[in-house]
From TrEMBL:
Belongs to the uracil-DNA glycosylase (UDG) superfamily. Type 4 (UDGa) family. This is Type-4 uracil-DNA glycosylase. Pfam families: UDG. NCBIfam families: UDG_fam4, UDG_fam_dom. Transmembrane segments: none annotated. SUPFAM superfamilies: Uracil-DNA glycosylase-like. Residues 45-207 form the Uracil-DNA glycosylase-like domain. Coiled coil: none annotated. The keyword DNA repair applies.
Length: 213
């Protein structure tokens, strides 16, 4: 039985049978699979070509993404754009999405940007059916997992980014034939003490990903 507009469970209750991206995006707009929808402005679904060879998966939308309804359009997104360009990857040729589709945040003081709050494991798991549906629709060859939350959403809670960064990884069978590669989230580059060094390492990872395509 379909859930009511105010009920929560997991995203599986809201994912349609159709695997067309348009149908998925439309259904995701009404998702109540976890409580994050209550405070977020809107669902931020993935964007990119239907047959993109690479899918980049982040943690969750940020303040700017929540307002605009599109992934990676804030400060971290601008850094990602530059890194993609420097690594020889065209942004409009990859599919961009997040493990969690609603913005989780701490309310900010008046006039200030809302502060991102890491989603819980329960929230990540609740939203996982949307990511699986996107992968099923796009069928990418490579998932580039941006940050620990995205990597653990795909590879399990025991995955450690520090141990496996930049490696080509086998993914669970439910992710089809795609391979995985984990690197840092661009927001981590923005926070790094030596931003130039962190940026160069991030570009190296993306360049290695490009060579796999």
């Amino acid at each position: 039985m379909p859930r009511t507009a105010d009920s929560t469970g997991t995203a599986a209750d809201f994912v349609p049978d159709s695997r067309g991206l348009r149908a998925l995006r439309s259904a995701a707009a009404g998702c109540r699979g976890c409580g994050l929808y209550r405070d977020a402005t809107q669902t931020v679904f993935g964007e990119g070509p239907r047959q993109a060879r690479a899918m980049l998966v982040g943690e969750q939308p940020g303040d700017r993404e929540d307002v605009e309804g599109a992934p990676f359009v804030g400060p971290a997104g601008r850094l990602l754009d530059r890194a993609l360009d420097d690594s020889g990857i065209e942004r409009d040729q990859v599919y961009l999405t997040n493990a969690v589709k609603h913005f989780k945040f701490v309310p900010a003081e008046r006039g200030k940007r809302r502060i991102h709050q890491k989603p819980s494991r329960t929230e990540v798991v609740a939203c996982r059916p949307w990511l699986l549906a996107e992968i099923d629709a796009v069928r990418p060859e490579l998932l580039v997992l941006l940050g620990a939350t995205a990597a653990q959403a795909v590879l399990g809670a025991s995955f450690r980014l520090t141990r496996h960064r930049g490696e080509v990884l086998e993914l669970p069978a439910e992710f089809g034939s795609a391979r995985g590669m984990a690197t840092v989230h661009p927001s981590a580059v923005l926070r790094a003490p030596d931003r130039d060094e962190a940026y160069a390492a991030f570009v190296d990872d993306l360049t290695a990903a490009a060579r796999r395509l």
